Amino acid sequence: MSREAGEVREIPASTWLAAIAGWLVPGLGHIGQGRLLKGALGGLAVLLLFGLGAALGGHVYSLWDTSEGLLSTLFGFCDLGSGLLYLASRATGFALREQPELATSEYGNVFMMVAGLLNFILALDAFDIGAGRKP
Question: Phi and psi at residue 37, in whole multiples of 5°?
Fold first, then answer.
């Protein structure tokens, strides 16, 4: 089954919904497509990384705070990948304060960023599966 160059395939709305749901709630995009194990393991990995990062003293960066430079905005984008975890953290004030006195705080920051990046990859994977690009 080959496609000719320049052929455009319409992507169903359910594919977009799976990707957005997978971004908001880690693993939900795969679970909604019937891939329960992949969704559960991916979601659990994101939750554990985010939780462990917070326990190590990490904090979520803001997308709009450029007082620390442009790099902090990039870190905020990485954290945004955690979906509702990021949004709930910003809304409730959980893990917003830097804790430089803790020796493990930089590790915590990285764990939380990796959680967001992993969730972006999971959401994109759910999109590719829904679009038929991946079996």
Answer: -65, -45
CA 24 distance to own-chain centroid: 8
Of 133, 132, 126, 134, nearest in space to 16 by CA: 126
CA-closest candidate to residue 126, choices 22, 40, 46, 43: 22
Q: Quick: pLDDT tens for 17-35.
A: 999 999 999 999 999 999 9
Cβ(98)–Cβ(35) below 8 Å: no
Per-domain residue ranges of the chain: 13-130
Cα–Cα distance, 63 to 85 (Å, whole number):
15
Q: Does residue 82 contact residue 50 with C-beta atoms inside 8 Å?
A: yes
